[in-house]
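During the second half of the funding period, the structural biology subgroup turned its attention to how the target accommodates small molecules. The most pressing case was (2Z)-2-iminopentanedioic acid, which had performed well in the primary screen but for which no bound structure existed. We therefore specified the complex as follows and requested a full 3D prediction, including the ligand pose.
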Amino acid sequence: MFTCQTETKSSYLSGVLANLKAKNSFEPEFLQAAEEVLSTIEPVILKNEQEYKDSALLERLLEPERIISFRVPWVDDNGKVQVNRGYRVQFNGAIGPYKGGLRFHPTVNQSIMKFLGFEQIFKNALTGLPIGGGKGGSDFDPKGKSDLEIMKFCQSFMTELQKHIGQDTDVPAGDIGVGGREIGYLFGQYRKIRNVYEAGVLTGKGLEYGGSLTRKEATGYGLMYFMREMLKANNIEIANKTVIISGSGNVAIYACEKAQQMGAKVVAMSDSSGCIYDKDGIKLDYIKEIKEVIRGRIKEYLNYVPSSLYSENNSSIPAVYNIVADIILPCATQNDINLETAKLLVNNGAIAVGEGANMPCDNDAVKYFLENNVLLAPGKAANAGGVATSALEMSQNSMRQFWSFEEVDNKLENIMVNIFNQCQNASNEYGYKNNYVAGANIAAFTKVSNAMKAQGII
Ligand code: NDP
Ligand code: 2IT
């Protein structure tokens, strides 16, 4: 699909893909993520096809080491018993303990958990730190729930999850719907049940009990460090560029903050209901107040800045993408940008897209951007700063140390520069010019597959 060849030359690869589709036909998001990776690593496979085939390396890579699915019962504020479904997908532990976030959102299902866990394997490999790939979550909807309901849900969720995790086994963190508040409740329940102060079992913790400075900012800041490197390699400056951001959660807010620090002008942000447009530039303090403090809707920005405009999402193209900008940062959820939206963005003169979210561009959109010379920073590389800083949090927990904001931020910046260089070098080496999607997949696959080969058939 994104290969330099027009057709698949590896019969092993095409056989694996056909089998994967047949076996996982009810998991469209997982198939999408797997297809994107498989379609770009063919030149690596062709170098040593027989060895990959004989060891069934791809078949093993595509099958999670373990999937745990469990019942999460809890009692709501009206005394009614609610039942949700919880998951943890422990996808690949070849280079370290399983590591990846927890997502609480009503759309969560096994396909979404598997796509996120699969992406996480490669993302974590790119960080250069010793972490394997995993993901978890629940179809629980945190919207409109009281603090007490959130706590009771988190406690019930952890009562089961604690059997399967540990600082050297599997280390969850946040994702959509899981931030500092939820991590606190989850950590408290783990500590109570296990009777151990195992700070490294979760990341994204509060600063008072083992968290790391810069973790909150890390994914958004990291995204902008990656964008700066990618644009610099193509002789483009970020300063004075216009930016639109899809989403207004953790990743979106800190991508906005760093983009503004770099001199860019962010004119729009959104949530699942719609978007606000502020032609003078978003006043981020108001967004933080709305989203981090009162947990409100983005529309409330109008109360703070009456001259701004609000558009409701009411067509197949999310409203935020109607706003003309140079740089597009999808930081909300998967498949936010399809081919129709990609065409609009290209038509509006977009020069670069940075995936703060996981898989926000569908495969047709990715292909269209690449064909139209839009620089595309793939999520598994560009948003790796969050998990990388989680690994730095684990290091501080093991060493019983607490690093300064500057120290963690400098490490994060170096990691992101290094990730960009890996993407660029791999894309050049295999003849994919400016195709950082292929570069990220090849660099990460090479590392993970070498680790798997070394550990035998397991
Ligand atoms: P948050 O829960 O903090 O924010 C999510 C944002 O995305 C909200 O603005 C939310 O709007 C919007 N959103 C969620 N689902 C949808 C949907 N179906 N349609 C439209 N908008 C939606 O999550 P994060 O900021 O942590 O995560 C955002 C993305 O970044 C996700 O793809 C996540 O996997 C990825 N990511 C997160 C990392 C992290 O460290 N947190 C690290 C790397 C990637 P609303 O409130 O209306 O639902
Ligand atoms: O998608 C992701 O990389 C995250 N949600 C962060 C995972 C982590 O372990 O910090």
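Two results from this model are relevant to the next phase. Residues 405-429 form the longest helix (25 residues). The chain has 18 helices and twelve strands.
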